[in-house]
Amino acid sequence: MNSPKVNKQYGRDNLPDQILTALGNAGKDLDNLTRADLGTFDEFHIGGLAETRILISKIPDFQQGSKVLDMGSGLGGPARTLADEFDCEVVGIDLTQEYVKAATVLTERVGLSDKITFKQGDVLDMPFEDNSFDVVWTQFVGMNIEAKQTFYEQAYRVVRDGGYLAFHEVMAGENDGLIFPVFWADVAEVNHLRSPETVQEILADVGFEQIEWVDLTQASVEFFEKMLTARKQQTEKPPLGFNIFVGEETPLKAQNIIKNLDAGHIKVVQGIYKANK
Ligand SMILES: C[S@@+](CC[C@H](N)C(=O)[O-])C[C@H]1O[C@@H](n2cnc3c(N)ncnc32)[C@H](O)[C@@H]1O
C-alpha cells in the first residue's frame, strides 16, 4: 500500500482554500469562476489542456456523452474538460484526499457538478463494477504506481468490451539516473517508472490491443521551456501555476524535467488501447 507515501508527495493542508486564495489574489471573481480561470494549473501534466484535447481526439469514434473513469484525477482539470467540452459523465478517483476535496470544490464553482463526481480511493483497488465505463482515462499517474500489472488489470476490468484505455504518462528513458526532485517524486521511493517496452508487454498481457502509441518526449521539453520563460517574465503578481500546490520548488522541478528529458532519463508517451473482451 503506497497511500501514505503518495499523500506525502501530493497532499497539502487546506488545498481548496489555498487555491481559492491564490485565485482571489490573482484578481479572479470567486463567485463566478470559469474553467478558463483555472486553466493555467488544473491539468497537472505536461502539455496541460492542449494535450488532453489531443488525447481525446485519438480515441476512435469518441462519443459525446461517454461514461469516463479518470484514474488519478488530481485537481479534476481533465475531468472538467471531458465533461464540459465532450458532454461526458465522468468519475474521478484519486488517493490524495486534499486533491479530491479541491477537485470537488473547483467543479462546483464552475458549475459542472451534475456531470462529475470525485471519489477518494486507490486505483489498485477500485470500487467500481466490471465493464462499467466506455473509456478509462489516466494522465501522469503510472509514475507513482509500482504494481503496474494490477493498475492496468483494474483499467481492463472496469472498461466495457470494445471500450478504450487512454493514457498519457512519463516512462523510463534509455539511461538510468533520474534527477530528483520531479513533480511526481521528491525521493526515489515514490518513483516507479518502467520502460515503454515493459509497459507495452504488460498491456498486451492484460488483454489490451494497441491502437496508438505516440512519443511526446521532444514536445515535452518545449512545454517546460515555455513555462520557465513565462515565469521569468512574470514580475509582480504571483503566477497562477503549479506553484499553488507544488510550492517554491516548482521551477527546480520544471528544470529537472528538462534535464531528465535531455539526458534520456525519461520519455513521455500517449497511448490508446482497446479492450476486446
Ligand atoms: C501528477 S498528478 C496528475 C493528476 C491528473 N491526472 C492530471 O493530469 O491533472 C498524479 C495524481 O495521481 C494520484 N495517484 C498516485 N497514485 C495513486 C493511486 N494509487 N491511486 C489513486 N490516485 C493516485 C495522485 O494523488 C495525484 O493526484
Notes on the structure:
By secondary structure, this protein is an alpha/beta fold. It has one domain (3-174, 183-217, 266-275): Vaccinia Virus protein VP39 (Rossmann fold), CATH 3.40.50.150. 41% of the residues lie in helices and 20% in strands. The chain has eleven helices and seven strands. The protein has helices spanning 3-10, 15-25, 35-38, 48-58, 77-86, 97-109, 148-158, 196-206, 217-233, 243-246, 250-262, and strands spanning 67-71, 89-94, 116-120, 133-139, 159-172, 208-215, 266-275. A seven-stranded mixed β-sheet has the order 3-2-1-4-5-7-6, sandwiched between helices. Helix 2 (15-25) packs across helix 6 (97-109), helix 4 crosses helix 5 (77-86) and helix 7 (148-158) packs across helix 8. The radius of gyration is 18 Å and the shape is globular. Bound molecules: S-adenosylmethionine. S-adenosylmethionine binds next to helix 1, helix 5 and strand 2.
CATH topology call? Rossmann fold
* Estimated helix fraction: 40-55%
Work out the number of β strands: 7
Strand content: 15-25%
Ends apart, CA distance between termini = 29 Å
CATH architecture: 3-Layer(aba) Sandwich
What is the number of independent domains? 1
Structural class: alpha/beta
SSE string: HHHHEHEHEEHEHEHHHE
Largest sheet: 7 strands, mixed
Task: Provide the gyration radius in Å.
Answer: 18 Å
Strand ordering within the main sheet: 3-2-1-4-5-7-6
Question: CATH H level: which superfamily?
Answer: Vaccinia Virus protein VP39
The tally of helices reads: 11
Question: Mean pLDDT, rounded to whole units?
Answer: 93
Assembly form of the protein: single chain
Overall outline: globular
Low-confidence stretches: none
Ligands: S-adenosylmethionine
